[in-house]
Sequence to fold (270 residues):
Amino acid sequence: MAQMVFNERLSNQLEVVYHARDMVRRRELAREALAATEGERVLDIGCGPGFFVAELLEEVGPDGHVTGVDASPAMLALAARRCAGRAGAGFVAADVRSLPVAGAAFDAALCVQVLEYVPEATAALAGMHRVLRPGGRIVIWDVDWSTVSWHSADPDRMRRVLRTWDAHLVHPSLPRTLAPRLRAADFEDVRATGHAFATTQGSPETFGASLMPLIEQFVAGRDEISPDEAAAWSAEQRQLDADGEFYFTCTQFCFTATARRRNRPLRPAA
Fold:
């Protein structure tokens, strides 16, 4: 399985994508679910280029603190630049599976579209539980890629492109098992809310269209999809948009939970 490598090139591409209207909407929904308040300490796990950190700083105020964790040096460089001079911001280079922070140090934690890349997702959740105070809140946001419905005049090619795109992560449908994984990691009050990201426009402001350059770049040369075929897939989508026939939808899931107030041995996920 050839996953994405979050190097400088990809990090810069994603920073542009994260400015898109649908990405702004997603951050608003995730922050609403987290409900950070003044004076809280918040951990952003897989912080990427730091959009959440910068926005959460406004919510926790001068007495609060937001720590961003990411394994990509390129992402952390962008995040540090975005939050330069902002009191209350901190960044740590680390893998989500091994958080080098003190136990019970945070009031809330956020992890957006990260766990779908992590093989040991339940163990990673247990690590998040460790760093939260008893009763601390967590928001996990991931995409069920099997919910993607994407119009094409060449449905066979679209199926092959999407199947190959699934290989960019470990868990294409992680939301299906997130609730039992959270409970196995000693979280309680587990709840899930689905959010549809649907559009009939191929604007880069939308979630689906904003992914097109990344998808074309990833699938080209994989699974018998030649660069020319990947380019033809992308060109068809641009033409469908010009003809008023573009259509994309997928469902993204926001899970909320609280850290159980008494620790128990980690249970295997269902």
Q: What stands out?
A: DSSP finds nine helices and seven strands in the chain. The chain has a mean pLDDT of 94.
